[in-house]
Input
Amino acid sequence: MQKELKIITIDGPGGAGKGTIAAMLSQKYGLFLLDSGALYRILALHVMQLGHNITDEKQVYHDAKNIKISFKQENSKVISYLNGVDVSIKIRNEDCAKNASIIAGYKTIREILLQKQRDFASPPGVVADGRDMGSVVFSQAKYKIFITATIMVRAKRRQKQLQNQGENVNIVSLCKQIEERDYRDKNRAVSPLKPATDAFIIDTSAMTIKEVFKKAQNFIEAK
Ligand code: DC
Output
């Protein structure tokens, strides 16, 4: 008999800690790791590098048709490639985040990227992090978690992340950027950011990573 695929979805807004928890869960259960946001970021970087207009959906669609996106998982780390070039660090800046959020509103782009995301669900299973993992991409998943936190907490976490990469960003402008991105992600017509109806919600504002991980683990193991 075929063993059931273990699919764990981790959705939520930027800076809530999805990536960290998804990586920890993939290690814990020996599952593949899908950072779906990286797909949107890689495509956004490609469009920017070509000097094309990010608000021109037709052009972005054409660029998306001619791009090779690939990943290599090394334990809990995933290396992202754009046409064979490692862009893991380049895609992490706020410009890429903003443009990824813009192209993520295009139905044609979401359709192209859908199968690519579903391909990650191969044995033994996957931990998928993003905005619509539980609501659309893996709506059949048994374990759905939605991670959130206040804007200020998320901005502070993002600031620390960026500082570790040698980038200094003002907290007020970071809050504004996060707010704008949240608004776009929540209000788009296709696959908006929202918890799946059967998702387990964790507000991580006053929690440590260890506590969030434990809560997620308890939820998974109790199901
Ligand atoms: O998770 P992230 O910050 O890397 O995501 C970057 C942007 O990509 C985010 O603002 C919206 C988009 N995105 C999406 O629309 N759907 C996903 N499943 C993942 C990301």
